[in-house]
Specification:
Helices cover 41% and strands 15% of the residues. It contains 30 helices and 29 strands. The strands form five sheets. It has a seven-stranded parallel sheet. A six-stranded antiparallel sheet has the order 1-6-2-3-4-5, with no helix packed on it. The chain has a six-stranded parallel sheet with strand order 14-19-18-15-17-16, with helices on both faces.
């Protein structure tokens, strides 16, 4: 570097300065009194503030290479790729794209473009389970933060998903968020100065919604909440729950969100795969958070749907599957099937006894309240017995929740919440407890306790009968499960078995462990259960124990089974370790089945065809009702219309009507026989309403704003940005070559990637990789030729932390003074002389870095300054004082040129020295290229802003200083010798 002392001045964004013995790039937010600087070639972690009044700061220029820094023909390619991978302030119109560790698909940029259209971002992202809502929300957040339109970020979510959100924000978007949970608040408060809030408007946080909604913390949070809020599983904050503690909890969540939304300049992203439960009122409350008009506008009109479309984005799997034709890990299809079994005669006898008991007790009820209490109590017993004998035993020994009800309506609300699976219920993570059956027996009119004793004895007999059904001998459902799971394992699948109740999950897991690992088994199977009895942290640990390496570094067993309740049906990503779902218990809501299957059928799944199997009792009337009234109709409507819509609000009354037909069937009056046909009519009316809703939704979807955004145009801009940052093939080749030069000994794998050993790598790089993958990562490190990789392994993408670490090391070593690090640790060099048959005249290739100041119009009408960088390869034939510039594609082709003859080192040093001495002659042309590149980049920004209808006034891209010449590589024609006889 060279420096020149000048008077104190205002430095432009992107200019170079010398301070503290090194060179820096000036960043935005710098003032004459305080310069915000990043070391040249450094990362954001190295940013520092320098006071020119107290320290010497002078302008600097980037020094050209030295003749002694000679490399072979691969030096230019390695240095160029290392530079491009390392860019974290790319010049393209998506400012955050260069600094995030995720490679978004084109459809995932559509919500971002919708957000850029709005002055204050208010969006409901309601894409299907598993297609990337977290990434879409993260992209919007990263872009708002990068552009300066948001100062801070908070994610409100379930405590079970808090750690996962924190990991996603940090690993994919570089946002280091603090966890605010009951388990962390004490430490956070101790670390906070007295009288200050844990929250800062410019901070980043992941917060438990249920924790922060409490009166103790709510007001402090609202006063200091950042200006960008993401609400995960937003439907749980507006659920139509009106009973007891659940009602209070739901009301407090909604009140918190309403208070956040009332500040009109706060960005709000609502994320949920189930925005509409089938009930209109909760949906209206949800969309009313985005815009007050949406709470009342008629949505069956064009005007109403157009208004909603401004704030609402929803895509189904069929809408986006074409975006995964490039080999990215997303299942091509989901193989679904029903698997039937026939009840053992003893199980059937007990089920008939329970039905008889239910019929008698409901009919004998004294008054409407007792009738509804008994109804829900017996329905709970029927459902638990259909689940497992273990669940039935626990239900018979547990007091019924409806016992506390004071009115029939309250009994119904409690029963729906504890026995059914209402679509608008709260998150299922704690809803897997067995509902109770026991009710106080009604005293006989004459005070005789004989009736009480008789009923008690009957219940005790049921308990004993249920206990005798344990195990695959009499439990045909369990026997069928064991056979089905064994078949899946033999086919190479790794299944998740979903159960409704904790007792059932534990029962199933215990028997699977015994049967699948009985003495003499050739291939043992690892089995674990995860239920709501475990805390969120314990669930993560249990899954990690099943799927991760052990303490000695041994890999997880390939034959494994996870048994879980619906505490894992939402939000938790299991696609890296499992690829099949088996519904052991039928959910009484089709949405729950979609959520379960979405745990494996999602982006990142390596199995091309995932499995989803549904177990049901062919002669179990409870299963028959659920299948015929709900699940099969939902699937049929989805196949016919291509639209998956929630069950209409009438579903609960229809289900009750059909169950009443089952429970009351037997000795019936003529009136009751007629009622059976009425109940069938109710189910038929439900299907008609459901079909109508699907057709209406199909028509309305044509008005969604997301459809007005041309995805192909977005993809073209993204492809251009990706090309400037390093293509996938380039990144893969660079990583393999760099690790080979650094003694990592890459070895190919059958899957198309490679492995590399880290033990012999330079110490600094080895430590960085260990930090990125974790101390217990598999060795050697596995590099996957795919956009994603399992925990502890690396993906061959520019945004992967391991790939970025390799690129950073290669670039830093190349830019360091010669002799500062050992020669073998410098695989990239800044100059070289190559004799090759690829050229016919002397040709010089330059690796050039351009820096730009971006003036970006902000939402508030101001113009913000941003720093941007770009790297280009240019080449000319002849001498520097009379260059013949090559087209870009011919210049890039030189990177693939191979040396066909050795070059004498002394000649190479003397020759490259002459070229370096004459570089000043071509600087005017490089400045002109920088100006032209600036105009091209400005046009790209204008196209994206025009597509998103964002502001254009004040937009400008201005080159900063002379371009930096990072590398100079001279290609000389190698003589060709005639071959054959007579040569």
């Amino acid at each position: 570097m060279t420096t020149a002392a000048q008077p104190s001045r205002q430095y432009a964004v992107g200019s170079l300065v010398h301070a503290r013995g090194r060179e820096w790039v000036v960043l935005p937010d710098s003032t004459p009194d305080l310069l915000v600087l990043r070391p040249l070639g450094g990362a954001d972690d190295d940013i520092a503030g320098v006071l020119p009044g107290l320290e010497t700061v002078v302008p600097a220029t980037f020094a050209p290479p030295t003749p002694s820094d000679l490399g072979d023909q691969q030096a230019a390619r390695l240095l160029r790729t290392a530079l491009r991978i390392g860019f974290r302030s790319g010049a393209g119109p998506f400012r955050a794209l260069a600094s995030i560790a995720v490679d978004p698909r084109p459809y995932q940029l559509v919500p971002l473009l919708m957000a850029l259209r709005q002055d204050t971002v208010r969006l409901l992202i309601a894409d299907d389970v598993g297609i990337g809502k977290t990434v879409e929300a993260g992209l919007i957040a990263a872009e708002l933060l990068a552009q300066g339109d948001a100062r801070g970020l908070v994610v409100l979510c379930s405590p079970a998903l808090a750690e996962q959100w924190r990991a996603e924000l940090y690993g994919k978007f570089g946002v280091d968020a603090r966890l605010v949970l009951p388990s962390t608040i004490g430490r956070l408060e101790r670390e906070t100065p007295y009288g200050h809030s844990v929250f800062r408007p410019d901070g980043a946080y992941v917060v438990s919604t249920d924790f922060i909604k409490s009166p103790r913390h709510r007001e402090d949070f609202l006063r200091n909440c950042p200006d960008l809020v993401i609400v995960d599983e937003a439907h749980s904050c507006v659920s139509d729950t009106t009973v007891g503690a659940s009602a209070r909890s739901s009301q407090q969540r909604y009140a918190l969100l309403r208070a956040l939304a009332d500040r009109t300049d706060r960005h709000l992203l609502l994320v949920t795969a189930t925005p509409h439960s089938g009930k209109e009122e909760p949906f209206r409350r949800l969309i009313g958070l985005l815009d007050d008009r949406l709470a009342a506008v008629p949505l069956d009109t064009d005007a109403g749907r157009r208004l909603l479309a401004e704030f609402f984005v929803q895509r189904r799997r069929a809408d986006i599957r074409e975006d995964f034709q490039d080999g990215a890990h997303f299942p091509s299809s989901r193989d679904t099937a029903e698997t039937a079994y026939t009840l053992h005669r003893d199980y059937k006898r007990l089920l008939d006894e329970v039905l008889s008991y239910a019929r008698e007790t409901v009919r004998a009820a004294d008054g409407a309240l007792q009738q509804r209490q008994r109804w829900w109590s017996t329905l709970a017993l029927l459902r638990t017995l259909s689940s497992s004998p273990a669940a039935a035993v626990q239900s018979l020994n547990t007091r019924a929740g409806v016992e506390e009800a004071d009115t029939p309506a309250e009994a119904d609300r409690t029963g729906e919440r504890t026995v059914s699976d209402p679509a608008d219920s709260e998150t299922p993570e704690s809803a897997d407890a067995v509902p109770g059956t026991r009710l106080p027996a009604a005293a006989a009119d004459d005070g005789d306790s004989e009736v009480d004793d008789e009923e008690r004895a009957r219940l005790i007999a049921m308990v004993e009968s249920a206990k005798k059904l344990y195990g695959p001998t009499r439990d045909a459902k369990l026997k069928k499960l064991i056979t089905t799971v064994s078949d899946l394992l033999d086919q190479g699948y790794r299944p998740i078995v979903f159960c409704r109740y904790i007792a059932t999950a534990d029962y199933v897991a215990d028997h699977l462990k015994k049967v699948l690992n009985k003495k003499g088994t050739e291939h043992p199977v690892a089995v674990a259960s995860v239920t709501g009895e475990l805390s969120p942290d314990q669930r993560v640990t249990r899954i990690a124990e099943l799927t991760g390496t052990d303490e000695e570094g041994n890999p997880a067993p390939e034959r494994r089974v996870l048994v879980a309740t619906d505490c894992l049906s939402e939000g938790v990503n299991l696609q890296e370790s499992f690829d099949a779902v088996l519904h052991y218990d039928l959910a009484w809501n089709p949405t729950r089945h979609e959520q379960r299957e979405g745990r494996v059928d999602r982006f990142g799944q390596r199995t091309d065809v995932v499995k989803a199997l549904t177990l049901y009792g062919a002669d179990n009337p409870v299963d028959g009702i659920v299948l015929n009234v709900l699940l099969r109709k939902h699937e049929r409507i989805r196949r016919v219309t291509g639209i998956s819509v929630p069950v209409p609000q009438e579903s609960e009354s229809a289900m009750q009507a059909v169950f009443e037909g089952l429970i009351l069937r037997g000795e019936r009056s003529a009136y009751e026989q007629e009622g059976l046909f009425a109940q069938e009519d109710v189910a038929e009316q439900l299907e008609i309403a459901w079909q109508s809703s699907a057709e209406r939704e199909k028509r309305h979807r044509s008005r969604y704003a997301q459809l007005t955004i041309k995805k192909d145009e977005v993809a073209a801009e993204v492809d251009e940005i990706r090309a400037a940052l390093g293509t996938g093939e380039e990144v893969r080749d660079f990583t393999r070559r760099a690790l080979s030069a650094l003694r990592g000994m890459p070895a190919p794998t059958k899957q198309g990637g490679f492995t590399a050993h880290t033990d012999a790598l330079p110490q600094g790089l080895r430590d960085t990789i260990a930090h990125a993958l974790g101390p217990r990562h598999p060795r050697p490190v596995v590099f996957h030729d795919a956009p994603s990789a399992p925990r502890g392994e690396a993906a061959l993408t520019r945004t992967d932390p391991v790939v970025a670490a390799v690129a950073r090391f290669v670039l830093d070593a190349a830019l360091d003074d010669v002799g500062k690090v050992p020669e073998w640790q410098r695989p990239a060099r800044r100059c070289g002389v190559v004799r090759t048959t690829a050229v016919e005249r002397n040709t010089t290739l330059l690796l050039v870095r351009h820096r730009f100041q971006l003036n970006l119009p902000a939402r508030d009408g101001s113009v913000r300054e941003q720093l941007a960088e770009d790297a280009r390869v240019v080449a000319y034939r002849g001498k520097p004082d009379a260059p013949d510039w090559l087209p870009e594609d011919e210049a890039l082709a030189l990177l693939d040129a191979r040396a066909t003859q050795n070059t004498d080192p002394k000649f190479a040093t003397e020759h490259i020295a002459g070229i370096l001495a004459a570089l000043s002659a071509i600087m005017p042309e490089l400045r002109a290229q920088s100006a032209e590149l600036g105009r091209t980049l400005e046009a790209s920004h204008r196209r994206v802003r025009t597509a998103s209808r964002a502001r254009l006034a004040g937009l400008k891209v201005v080159p900063q200083g002379d371009p930096d010449i990072l590398g100079v590589y001279h290609y000389r024609p190698a003589p060709t010798f005639p071959q054959g006889v007579g040569a």
